[in-house]
Amino acid sequence: MGMEFVDLFNQWASSYDDTVAGKDPEYREVFEGYDEMLGRLAKLSVSPVMEFGVGTANLTRKVIDQNKVVLGIEPSSEMRRIAKVKCPEAAIYDGNFLEYPKLLTPIRSIISSFAFHHLTSNEKVEAIQSFRDRLEDDGKVVFIDTIFKDKEHKQQLIKSAERQGFLNLAQDLQEEYYPFLEELREMFVLNGFEVTFEQLNKYAWLIQAKKGE
Ligand SMILES: C[S@@+](CC[C@H](N)C(=O)[O-])C[C@H]1O[C@@H](n2cnc3c(N)ncnc32)[C@H](O)[C@@H]1O
């Protein structure tokens, strides 16, 4: 469940850091400002932190450098192998948004960058319900991910990718589970979160959801 992209990430792991650094023109705009975006997310996190979809630990590294405790969850063994080399201080476990080891540490923030879109709509709802249960009363979720403002925006981004000859990107935009903003807002609100959205680049948004009373 929610694991259909793991083979892709095992293959991508060794070149992933080149992609986020902008070396692949096709994904340059998706990750534009990557380092600054992750820096901002790290600052917003409150320890103890649970991070999903750690990847090569670029966000994890920034959070650890702020002396915060991070429990990382990552389903790809290749990503975990690189993450443990780059961030040996972090505890990184095999798991995904919906299934992960039972860890007893109280969690005050749940963070993730560029990973939540791997869940279908139903899986996102299930994950958000579980965030509410997992977080302390003053807890929050802070994510960065691609979101479509609405259907027209989705079509604009797909056409723009096609015009530039970025056919893999165009296919991702159609086939992965990037949510519409209002759909994601409703998922958080119905589960008792107060949520805000801020656009960070052409694709990526900062999503902050505070657990309500
Ligand atoms: C685009 S990478 C982002 C990595 C890192 N967070 C970053 O910002 O560079 C997406 C990551 O999410 C992981 N992933 C895929 N499906 C997942 C799931 N269902 N639950 C948690 N993580 C998942 C992938 O293995 C991959 O490491």
UniProtKB/TrEMBL annotation:
Tree of life domain: Bacteria
Gene Ontology BP term (one): methylation
Binding of S-adenosyl-L-methionine, residues: 53, 74
GO MF annotation list: S-adenosylmethionine-dependent methyltransferase activity
Enzyme class at the top of the EC tree: transferase
Gene3D superfamilies noted in UniProt: Vaccinia Virus protein VP39
Residue stretches making up the Methyltransferase domain: 49-139
Free-text function comment from the UniProt entry: Could be a S-adenosyl-L-methionine-dependent methyltransferase.
Assigned protein family: Belongs to the methyltransferase superfamily. YrrT family.
Protein name: Uncharacterized methyltransferase HFA01_36770
